[in-house]
Input
Amino acid sequence: MLLSLLPAFTQSFYHIFTPFYCHAGISYDKKYTAAISTSINFYDNTAHNYINAVSDDLGMKYIDYFSAHMGLLNKKGGDKSLLKFADYVFDCVLSGVVPAKRYEKISCDNKVFQCKSTNIEKITASKRITVIADRHEVGLDNMIGCFKNSFNQEINVSYLSDILIKGGCRGCLKCGPQNNCFYDNNL
Output
């Protein structure tokens, strides 16, 4: 059984992992998986749907997710709901439950994005535009280049892989008022 205990970098993890899965013959087919997360319960459903979709794509048996509010597990009795969830997951595994797939499998065709239209009318935006991307990658860079070429003004591109990120989101909300992260990641 694989239990997904991943921090905020879940998407990057799967993005890096998927090519190896597709081409190295690694199979997680029919392995059970579940997701456990803690946060401030803000868009958790998006992260859990993503983990569910990737698990389905990898041929895994995704059971369910458990989302605890920050600090819940530190409170007296807060672990009861987690233990109940764990019992449910292990019951599913031991009884051989086969959960329904919610998402279609993505094919690994390794096509690299190429910009098709070069003679388009350029857009003049009234705001400054910044594109934030995970890392330099041929297809993604081509897509960003195509996007940049559709504007008259300069488009700033920042890559998260170029930034020293010291840790995942703690859910402390320090970033809210001044947009300054607790970690002082020089963002």
In short: Residues 111-187 form one domain.
